[in-house]
UniProtKB/TrEMBL annotation, chain A:
Keywords: Cell membrane, Membrane, Transmembrane, Transmembrane helix, Transport
Membrane topology: Multi-pass membrane protein
Entry-linked PROSITE patterns: ABC_TM1 (PS50928)
Location(s) in or outside the cell: Cell membrane
Designated name of the protein: Carbohydrate ABC transporter membrane protein 2, CUT1 family
Pfam families assigned to the protein according to its UniProt record, in alphabetical order: BPD_transp_1
Any Gene Ontology biological process: transmembrane transport
From TrEMBL, chain B:
Bias-annotated ranges (Low complexity): 12-26
Keyword Transmembrane: yes
PANTHER family per the UniProt record, alphabetical: ABC TRANSPORTER PERMEASE PROTEIN, INNER MEMBRANE ABC TRANSPORTER PERMEASE PROTEIN YCJO
Localization (cell): Cell membrane
Keyword Transport among UniProt keywords: yes
Protein name: Carbohydrate ABC transporter membrane protein 1, CUT1 family
Length: 275, 314
C-alpha cells in the first residue's frame, strides 16, 4: 500500500512513542538496579564503568532471592512436566477418539480455563489445611497443575484434531497400538504445539502470585514473586535492592520470551480463541 | 517426515498388538481406552478445581470464621454482596478497571494497529516484541516498577512538572481520588500490547483487494477504517474484550502490591475482598460468596462475548 512520506514519518514517531511507553517502566527498574545503592549512602560513581552489578549479588544473598528462585524453579518444573504430560494424554483422547460423553467432558474442562484462582483458593486452603498439606510444595503445585491441565487439554485437543487423521488411520491399519501412535507418531509431530504449551505453563506458574501467597508460610517455600512482595513490604531503606530483586524475578521469563516469542504470542492469542 | 514416523511405527509394532487393535475395530469407533487417557488429567482437575468450586458454593451458604463451627446462613452472604457498601464499592471499582483494562486499550490498539497496517513500516517485528513485553513480566514486578513511577518524586510527577502541570503532581497511589485511575492506568499500559498485537494479526488477514475497492470508491483513511478494517476484525475485538475484561475483573496482584486496597477502601476490588475477608478478617463464608459471584460474572462474560461475536460473524 502506498502512503505519503509524511504519513510514514508520523507512523515512525507513533511507533517509537509507544515502544518507549511500553519499555519505560521496565527500564526504570533495570537502571535503578544497576545504579549506586541508595540505602548504603549512594555515592554516584564507582562500580564497574559506573554500574553496580554487585547489587544483584547483594539481593541474591541478603534479599534471599537465590532461595526464592530455587523454589520457583522447582515449582515451575514440576507443574510443567506433570501438566504437559497429562494434557498430551487427555488432548489425545479428545482429539482422536470418539467416546460417549466426550462433548460434555470437554465442556467441563473448558470451564476450568475460565475459572479464576480466586474462586477456588479459599476452599482449597481450608481443605488442604485439614489434610495437613498447606505450607508444602504440593499445595502450591497441584492447584496450578489443575489449571494448566484445563488449558492444556483444550490446547492439545485442538492440535490433535487438525493433525493428520489419515496418519493415525494409516498407523492403526499397520497395527500400531494406541500408545505407540501417540508417542511415536503424533507427539514428535506435535513438538511446536507442545513447546508453546510448555512456555505458557512455565510463564503462568512462574508469575503466579495468589496461590503461593495463600498456601505458603515458611520463607523457604516462597516463590520468586511472593519473595519480592514480602521484600517490598519489609525493605524500606531504598529502592536499589528492590529493583535488583525485581530484575531477578522477571529475568527468566523475559529471556525465554526473547528467544521463543513466537510461541508466547501465538499461544496467548490463539489459546484465547475458542472454537 | 510423516511417512518415516509411520514406517518406524510399523517396524516396531508386534504381532499381538496388531491382533488386538484389529479386533478393536476401525478407527473412529467408540473407544473405552479414551477414558484411560483422560483419567489422570481429569482426577487432578476434579480434585483441585471442580471440587473446590463446589466447596466454595457450599461454604458461601455458611457463616464461618475458618476455625470454629460454621453456622447456616442461607443466602445472607449473597444478600451482603448487594447491600454491603464495601462490597458494592469493590464491584464498582472493578467496573472502573474494566474501562482502563479493556475499553481504553481497545481504542488505542485499534488506532495503533490500523495505522501500522496501512503503512507497512520497517521494524514492525521489533515493535511487536517490545509492545507485547509487559504481558510476560510478573505482575508483582510491574507493581514495584509503577509504585516507583507514581511516587511523589517519581517520573510521572517529573513529567507533569516538565510540561508545566505542577498542580497535578501528587503521590498518586496515596490519593483518595487518584489512586484507582492510577492503578487502572497500569492495566492500560499492560493490555495495550496484547490488544494491538491481536488486532494487527487480524488486520494482516484482510485481503488487499478490499482496500483497493474502497479506495476506488474514493474512501479516505477514516472511511476505510470504518467500512473495511473495523468489520473485518470483529472476531479479534471480541477476543480482546474477553481477555481484557476478565483480566480487569480478576485484578489482585496489582492491587495487593501497589495499594492493598487503600487509601481507605478506594482501590479495593472483588478479588482483593475475597482474600481480605477469608484470610485477614475471618469471614470465610462472605469471601466464598464474593468468589462465587465473581466467577459467575466471568463465566457469563466469557460465554456472552463469544456468542455475540459468533452471531455477528456468521
Amino acid at each position: 500500500m502506498r502512503v505519503s512520506r509524511g504519513e510514514r514519518l508520523a507512523n515512525y514517531a507513533i511507533l517509537i512513542a509507544f515502544a518507549v511507553f511500553a519499555l519505560y517502566p521496565v527500564l526504570t527498574i533495570v537502571v535503578a538496579a544497576l545504579g549506586p545503592d541508595d540505602a548504603a549512602g549512594g555515592q554516584v560513581g564507582g562500580g564497574v564503568l559506573g554500574l553496580h552489578p554487585e547489587n544483584f549479588a547483594k539481593a541474591w544473598q541478603d534479599g534471599h532471592f537465590g532461595s526464592y528462585l530455587r523454589t520457583s524453579v522447582v515449582v515451575s518444573a514440576t507443574v510443567v512436566v506433570i501438566s504437559v504430560t497429562l494434557s498430551i494424554l487427555s488432548g489425545f483422547a479428545f482429539g482422536t477418539m470418539r467416546f460417549p460423553g466426550s462433548t460434555v467432558l470437554f465442556y467441563v474442562f473448558l470451564l476450568g480455563i475460565m475459572m479464576p484462582s480466586e474462586a477456588v483458593v479459599v476452599p482449597l486452603y481450608f481443605d488442604l489445611r485439614t489434610l495437613g498439606l498447606t505450607d508444602t510444595l504440593w499445595a502450591v503445585v497441584l492447584p496450578q497443575v489443575a489449571q494448566s491441565v484445563a488449558f492444556g487439554t483444550f490446547w492439545m485437543r485442538a492440535y490433535f484434531r487438525t493433525s493428520s487423521r489419515s496418519l493415525v488411520e494409516a498407523a492403526r491399519l499397520d497395527g500400531a497400538s494406541t500408545r505407540r501412535i501417540l508417542w511415536s507418531v503424533l507427539v514428535p509431530l506435535a513438538r511446536p504445539a507442545i513447546v508453546t504449551l510448555t512456555v505458557l505453563v512455565f510463564m503462568w506458574t512462574w508469575n503466579e502470585f495468589l496461590i503461593p501467597l495463600v498456601m505458603v508460610i515458611s520463607e523457604s517455600l516462597r516463590t520468586a514473586p511472593l519473595g519480592l512482595a514480602f521484600f517490598q513490604g519489609q525493605y524500606t531503606q531504598g529502592f536499589t535492592l528492590l529493583a535488583a530483586g525485581a530484575c531477578i524475578v522477571a529475568t527468566p521469563v523475559v529471556l525465554l520470551y526473547l528467544f521463543l516469542q513466537r510461541h508466547f504470542i501465538a499461544g496467548m492469542l490463539e489459546g484465547a480463541v475458542r472454537e | 517426515m510423516s511417512t518415516q514416523q509411520v514406517a518406524r511405527a510399523r517396524r516396531t509394532s508386534t504381532s499381538p498388538a496388531r491382533a488386538r487393535t484389529r479386533s478393536a475395530g476401525p478407527p473412529g469407533e467408540p473407544r473405552r481406552i479414551a477414558y484411560l487417557y483422560l483419567l489422570p488429567a481429569f482426577l487432578v482437575y476434579a480434585a483441585f478445581l471442580l471440587y473446590p468450586l463446589g466447596r466454595a458454593v457450599q461454604i458461601s451458604l455458611y457463616d464461618w470464621d475458618g476455625n470454629t463451627l460454621a453456622t447456616w446462613a442461607g443466602l445472607d452472604n449473597y444478600a451482603e454482596v448487594v447491600t454491603d457498601p464495601a462490597l458494592r464499592a469493590a464491584f464498582g471499582h472493578a467496573l472502573v478497571l474494566v474501562f482502563f483494562y479493556a475499553v481504553l486499550p481497545l481504542v488505542v490498539g485499534l488506532g495503533l494497529a490500523s495505522i501500522l497496517n496501512r503503512a507497512r513500516v520497517r521494524g514492525l517485528p521489533f515493535f511487536r516484541t517490545v509492545i507485547f513485553l509487559p504481558q510476560v513480566v510478573a505482575m508483582v514486578v510491574i507493581g514495584v516498577a509503577w509504585r516507583r513511577l507514581y511516587a511523589p518524586d517519581g517520573s510521572v510527577n517529573d513529567l507533569l512538572r516538565a510540561v508545566g502541570l505542577d498542580s497535578l503532581a501528587r503521590g498518586w497511589l496515596g490519593d483518595y481520588t487518584a489512586a484507582l485511575p492510577a492503578v487502572g492506568f497500569i492495566g492500560t499500559w499492560f493490555e495495550i500490547g496484547l490488544v494491538t498485537v491481536l488486532l494487527l494479526a487480524g488486520m494482516g488477514r484482510i485481503p488487499g483487494e478490499l482496500y483497493e475497492a474502497a479506495r476506488l470508491d474514493g474512501a479516505g483513511p477514516v472511511r476505510e477504517f470504518f467500512a473495511v478494517t473495523l468489520p473485518s476484525v470483529r472476531g479479534e475485538i471480541a477476543v480482546a474484550l474477553t481477555l481484557t475484561v476478565i483480566a480487569a475483573l480478576r485484578t489482585f496482584d496489582l492491587v495487593y502490591i501497589t495499594t492493598r486496597g487503600g487509601p481507605g477502601q478506594s482501590t479495593s476490588v472483588p478479588s482483593f475482598e475475597v482474600y481480605n475477608r477469608a484470610f485477614q478478617q475471618g469471614r470465610v463464608g462472605s469471601a466464598a460468596a464474593v468468589a462465587v459471584v465473581l466467577t459467575l460474572i466471568i463465566f457469563v462474560i466469557s460465554f456472552g462475548i463469544t456468542r455475540v461475536a459468533e452471531r455477528e460473524g456468521a
